[in-house]
Amino acid sequence: MKGIVNSDLEAVLELKFQDKNGQEQLIEVMIDTGFNGYLTLPSKIIEQLNSSYLGQIRSTLADGNSGVFDIYQVALQWDNQLKQVEVDVMECTPLIGMALLKNYQLQISVVVGGEVLILPLPSLS
């Protein structure tokens, strides 16, 4: 999977999401290595995807504040496979967290226009 470093030096890539009717939507997401969840999406996108509600979770944010966040399940193309993942609803830029990157190698050329690569790690079995 490939992305790019934007003019704000953010590592971004487009992910393909699928709603319950099979309609696909491309969404630009930013990699956040300080976030240990899977994904965050704003409520507007969650509604567009007609996602399944799973419940709520209490989390502590990077700024030290904690809150209760709604959790949904979404379908996305990840490493050429349709994958169901948990998404925290947050009214911010969509984020990829470390849980989604587990078992993958992340390479970032940190210059404007630099390449972002997410590569599967060899199986450890």
Count, helices: 2
Distance between the termini: 23 Å
> Quick one: overall form?
globular
- What letter string, H or E per element, gives the SSE order? EEEEHEEEEHEE
User: How much of the residues is beta strand, in percent?
Assistant: over 45%
Mean pLDDT: 93
Number of beta-strand segments: 10
Strand order of the largest sheet: 2-3-8-4-7-6
Largest sheet at a glance? 6 strands, mixed, barrel
Could you say which structural class the secondary elements and strand pairing correspond to? mainly beta
Helix % is: under 10%
Walk me through the structure.
By secondary structure, this protein is mostly beta strands. The chain has one domain: Beta Barrel (Cathepsin D, subunit A, domain 1), CATH 2.40.70.10. The chain contains two helices and ten strands; from the N terminus they run E-E-E-E-H-E-E-E-E-H-E-E. It has helices at residues 43-49, 98-101; strands at 2-5, 11-18, 24-31, 39-41, 52-60, 66-78, 81-89, 95-96, 104-108, 115-120. A six-stranded mixed β-barrel has the order 2-3-8-4-7-6. The protein starts with a strand and ends in a 5-residue tail after the last strand.
